[in-house]
Amino acid sequence: MEKFTRNQRISAITKILIENPNKIINLNRFTEMFNAAKSTVSEDLIAIKEILLKLSLGKIETIPGAAGGVRYIGGVSEEESLRFAEELCMILKDRERIIPGNFLYVTDLMFNPDVISKAGKILASSFNNKGVNYVVTVETKGIPLAYEVAKMLGVQLVVVRRENKVTEGPTVSINYVSGSTNRIQNMTLSKRTINKGSNCIFIDDFMKAGGTALGIMNLLKEFESNLVGIGVLIDNIEMDRKLVDNYVSIIEFEGLDGEDNAILNVSKKIKM
Questions:
Q1: d(CA 56, CA 60)
Q2: Which residues, in sequence order, are bridge partners of residue 190?
Q3: What is the pLDDT along the chain (272 residues), one digit of tens a residue?
Q4: Which residues pair with 176 in a beta bridge?
Q5: Which pairing describes strands 103-104 and 134-138: parallel, antiparallel, or unpaired?
Q6: What are the chain's domains?
Q7: Closest alpha carbon to 160 in 176, 140, 185
């Protein structure tokens, strides 16, 4: 069988780990792939662990036991998080993004793979130690961001619908009050989606008063599950009263200035 150099092994192992965040990979997979001893692979992993920590690109954890192995937990450096948030603020300050009703247009960013990938890594790093089983979002704009967070945490994405769909089978539906408009709205989720006793986080693109997040919390109670965290791309801090307080965000929207320009800043709730 072909032999591989140390550099070749380290490159391949790093790629496999980063492409499978939070997934336990048995060392036997690497020993068989490279026809190498466990001690050799272990030395390779030490080198990978050191460089990832130095560059703030995440960490490698070793899980002992017969079913153990190693797993990659994603991370983002403080400098990278800050740079991304500042760049995003500059993009969103463009006056052309203000649409009738003084709303901020963000749809293009929510479907921009580069933006959503970086935002997903930043938000996911806030929940690495929460024991998350599911990432939950509400259709539709928040789905790409929630998907990236779920991917980085290595868990299932769950999408809550605004109305029942025949293809979902039996569902659980609740009414909730929008925190910004005080209107009664509905959300529904298939009974098959979430296991009882699960830990979930809610990810969305924009938070106004937090009515949707509170609705998600109440919906999860119907599944005997817990909402252990909330993450949003943009937090509208114009709202005097929030219905939830356990959340993180990347940037803050303070409204418009006298010339109708958006006022945005790096969020004080961002994980650094």
A1: 12
A2: 171
A3: 678 999 999 999 999 999 999 999 999 999 999 999 999 999 999 999 999 999 999 999 999 887 789 999 999 988 999 999 999 999 999 989 988 877 899 999 999 999 999 999 999 999 998 999 999 999 989 999 999 999 999 999 999 998 888 788 899 999 998 766 778 989 999 999 999 999 999 999 999 999 999 999 999 999 999 999 999 999 999 887 889 988 999 999 998 887 788 899 999 877 64
A4: 185
A5: unpaired
A6: 6-74 (1.10.10.10), 78-266 (3.40.50.2020)
A7: 140
Task: Pull the structure tokens for residue 132.
Answer: 């998350």
- Residues of 85-118 as b/e, b for ≥16 C-beta within 10 angstroms? beebbeebeeeebbeeeeebebeebbeeeebbeb
The edge-to-edge listing of strands for the beta sheet with 199-207 is: 156-160, 134-138, 199-207, 226-236, 247-256, 262-266
SS (H, E, C) 58-100: EEEEEECCCCCEEEEEECCCHHHHHHHHHHHHHHHCCHHHEEC
Are 224 and 183 in contact by the 8 Å Cβ rule? The answer is: no
- From residue 153, alpha-carbon distances to 29, 84, 203, 212 in Å are 21, 20, 13, 22
Q: Which strand (E) or helix (H) includes residue 136?
A: strand 134-138
- Residue owning tokens 């997040």: 213
> 136, 202 in Cβ contact below 8 A?
yes
Report the length, in residues, of the chain: 272
Looking at this protein, which amino acid is placed at residue 122? I
Looking at the DSSP assignment, which residues form a beta bridge with residue 231?
A: 203, 248
CB neighbours of residue 49 within 10 Å: 18
Q: Is 47 exposed, middle or buried (0-12, 13-18, 19+ CB in 10 A)?
A: middle
